[in-house]
Amino acid sequence: MKTLTTLIITLILSQTLWAKSKETIFVEAESFSNTGGWVIDQQFINEMGSPYLMAHGMGIPVKDAETIVKFPKTGKYYLFVRTKDWAAQWSDAEAPGRFQVLINGKPVNKTFGTEKNDWDWIKGGEVEITQKETSIALHDLSGFNGRCDALIFSADPEFNPVNELNALTAYRHKMLGIPDKPKNAGTYDFVVVGGGMGGVCAAISAARLGVKVALIQNRPVLGGNNSSEVRVHLGARIKQDPWPNLGNLVNEIGPERGGNAQPKDYYEDDKKLKAVLAEKNITLFLNCNADGVEMEGNKIAAVTAQSIITGERFIFKAPLFADCTGDGTIGVLAGADFMQGRESRDVFGEPTAPEVSDNLTMGASVQWFSNKKEKPAPFPDIKWGIEMNEEKSHALTRGDWDWETGMGVDQTKDFERVRDYGMLVVFSNWSYIKNHSSVKDKFANEQLQWVAFIAGKRETRRLVGDYVLNENDLRNHTVYPDGTAPTTWTMDLHYPHPENAELFPDAPFRSIAKHIEIYPYPIPFRCLYSKNVDNLLMAGRHISVSHVALGTTRLMRTIGMMGEVIGMAASVCKKENTTPRGIYNNYFAQMEKLMDKGVGDTSLPNKQTYNLGGTLKK
Amino acid sequence: MNKNKLTSSMIITLIAVIILLSSSFDIRFINKSEPAFHFLTEDSINIEVIALFEQDSVLSGYKAYVFSPVCEDTTCYPVELEFYWDVLGRFQRYEIFPGRELTKLDHKPFTDADYKTLSKLLLNNEPAFLEMKREDLVVKVKKDTVDGYTGATIAAIKNEVIAGAVYSCYTLWHIAHGIVADSIKNHTQKHFNQELLKKLFDSGEIEVAYYLTSRLNEDQCFTFLPEIQKLLSESGGFLAQHILDQLPQKVISSESFQNSMVSIMPNLDYYAQKSLLQRLDGTLTSDKLGKVLAESIEPRGSLHNELIIEIFCDNKSQLDPELYQTFLQQLLTKQVMLNKIQSENIKELVKNDKQLKVYLKNLKQKGLVQ
């Protein structure tokens, strides 16, 4: 199986995908054989239809992305590039994400990324193809997040590409020769979707208990918000009452150093990957975005997924699934009941809930930091940002969790705008500090070293389980017999920073946190499986909790422990041929024994001692 | 000192006095002190800790004269003050000696704000540098940079420490919160007496309750059984579970304790109940408590049920025979599915008892026994 995995991953990574239909050729940008300094961004597939390449250079143009395209014949073609001017919704100034298309090293007579504020095909005009095997490259002009989904070369002067999402997807599949029937990626005991702390721990936990697992992750690295792509450190406490051996696995795979927005090696991506690869019962699918389900009654029969590099489709079959996506993606696809926004006070009788329900959620963070260089490090005086001045700007060298945007925006449907605004404010602020601020001399040698392009989400949807944990349970410490992973962080809810909201009333980008301390509280098992999808477990910020209770359960060590628990549940489901609800009703004693023992290495010293958070128990 | 400074100093002094008077175990009416123990700091400085008493025999806290060299960058100088802890080894406050005020880098004296920062830091159990090594506290920066620092305090701890005295802060915090805390806890245990224990129980502090219930001997537990029962009934979090895990077996096995649990047990949370059940296995002697256990069997499969079944199967000779009928009737009524081991144990339990065999037959008829 390991060989098969390696083969699939190798195929995914090595195959440059381009396709021709008669005299029209479709080239996926993310399939370029050499992506150069461009990054693959898959976060918004459901919004705009595809992963894309992005020139995330933080103001310094990135290296060209390049591939060889085979043309059926030489001659004249009409070029179309699917792209957008990402900052157009906030500014009329010259677009930030400008780039060129190079054909055999020569730019076509058009600069892309300069028009349309939503994804569309931009005409590149006539191009002359003189060789059947021609080098096509994307040449970044700004370092400010130019982006390209795909290119079309058509010899047909009447050709007009489709842009409506469903039609475009069908067209992509046709042009790339992707069959309607996805490739069989295997049959497993347990399919875990999402490779953050919850998913990784779920997969390892289940695998160690003899369960055959497929782990599907839509990024090239594991760790989710704790990966080097997002750089949020782990938080909350492990090894707590009533299950002091939960968290041993989190301790095994968790980074030893704390800190948000720190250098890449703080997040120890390799440690998580090695831990997964060490399990013979896990087949790992990186760069694979799960986006469909096949149902049999109230049960998921299979999950389908797409390679974010080649577009190839796969199907994963199992009797049991885990949604560890954070967004509840699999649950929602399967028709699971879910909650979103803030519940009103009368729903659960929570003192902290608003009187009237609303759509406010916590936001997503785009963190960043700069480094001091030997020489002055200029930064462009950008015109396309939001307006800054002494009062509005922040003379900082690091943006932590509180650079948070998107509260109140549906981050499952409009997240590209949220992420882009997060980057826009970082660049706007930095441009002001570097070029206009009264302290600009002090910042002369500072250079933006890292700005997240994968934004760290806190809250989107919450799937409804057989129980919905709420503030009163936590405040009153009303514990239930099916308690599992102890949540220890405060009920920590984020709101727009009042001063920032006054200065930026349309879209504040700084936040504050309000805390309510709790005793360590074991999250009921009934919060970890769907109420109406019978074979769906979950671990992550999207478990069955109220908005207020989410304030404590969303911490990543807690989520990792949820993963440990649902991995154990998968082993009991397999052994007893039952469902998660069946475990609760009939086999919970087995879960208690497993939680008592734990699945992690008990001999390791506890390295998870940073960012513990306050708790009522010492 | 200007008028504003004078006023603020007076306010600080007043607040300090109020805190001092309102603290449960602070050092009031001290009329005896004696050397308690010595400990070595991370810099191998030997420090003697003095135990403080009120009313001659009641331990009230500890103090120590702290003298340690500290090097900030390339300059080293002595730090000299007095630390005070409560009887659980929790840092309370420090005092400086007249004429020997603390200094920062380049021998600049501490300001009022610096003393306040130090106080706040020393009272913080989890400062940002908790897991850091001394060498990680500053980043080395070249002299020609804008800040002109040779060593700049890292951003993560900047708000909690005193600029120019970061190593002093680090050193003093580790003296205040290091090995001394556990040593004090151990030393206090040697001075347990009625008055001190009463005072500690009366404090109502959860941390004190955890401490006490881990360290009381059997006799002390029996003496303070009402207080322990009160904690079991009223405590939050997992204290009840902790107490039931920690109590000496002789206490758990006593009929007086078990009878007292008749009214307390139904109100304990699931995890505390489970701890009690684990401790009762093989030691249940109270028929009253046995009845409570039998009636708390639930239809849902859980470890709680398994433990109750184990207790009844292990305790046959010690309990009222009628209780076993109640127990088996509960299994029938709640339709508890028995696994193979439980089934065997139940068969063993009833094998010499005609009346109980009827229950087994009924359990078999319902398909509950394997």
Description:
The complex is a heterodimer of chains A (618) and B (370). With 618 residues, chain A is α+β, with helices and mostly antiparallel strands. In chain A, 23% of the residues lie in helices and 26% in strands. In chain A, the strands form 10 sheets. A 5-stranded antiparallel sheet of chain A has the order 1-2-12-6-9, covered by helices on one side. In chain A, strands 16-15-14-20-33 form a 5-stranded parallel sheet. In chain A, strands 5-10-7-8 form a 4-stranded antiparallel sheet, with no helix packed on it. The relative contact order of chain A is 0.14. The N terminus of chain A is likely disordered. Chain B is α+β, with helices and mostly antiparallel strands and 370 residues long. Chain B folds into 2 domains: 180 residues, no CATH class; 177 residues, Leucine-rich Repeat Variant. Helix content of chain B is 51%, strand content 16%. Chain B contains 18 helices and 7 strands. A 5-stranded antiparallel sheet of chain B has the order 1-2-3-4-5, with helices on one face. A two-stranded antiparallel sheet of chain B has the order 6-7. Chains A and B meet through helix 14 of A and helix 7, helix 10, helix 13 and helix 15 of B.
Shape of chain B: elongated
How many domains in all of chain B? 2
Q: What's the quaternary structure here?
A: heterodimer
How are the strands of the largest sheet of chain A arranged? 1-2-12-6-9
In one word, what is the shape of chain A? globular
In N-to-C order, the SSE pattern of chain B is HEEEEEHEEHHHHHHHHHHHHHHHH
So how many helices of chain A?
Answer: 14
Relative helix content of chain B:
40-55%
Distance N to C terminus of chain B: 87 Å
Roughly what is the average pLDDT of chain B, rounded to an integer? 85
- The low-confidence parts of chain A are 1-16
CATH class annotation of the largest domain in chain A: Alpha Beta
Sheet with the most strands, sense and barrel status of chain B: 5 strands, antiparallel
Distance between the termini of chain A: 46 Å
Q: List segments of chain B where confidence is low: pLDDT < 50 over at least 5 consecutive residues.
A: 1-9, 11-29, 142-149
The portion of residues forming beta strands of chain A comes to 25-35%
Q: Write down the Rg of chain B.
A: 30 Å
CATH superfamily of the largest domain in chain A: FAD/NAD(P)-binding domain
From the helix content, strand content and strand pairing of chain A, which structural class follows? alpha+beta
- Main sheet attributes: strand count, strand direction, barrel closure of chain A: 5 strands, antiparallel
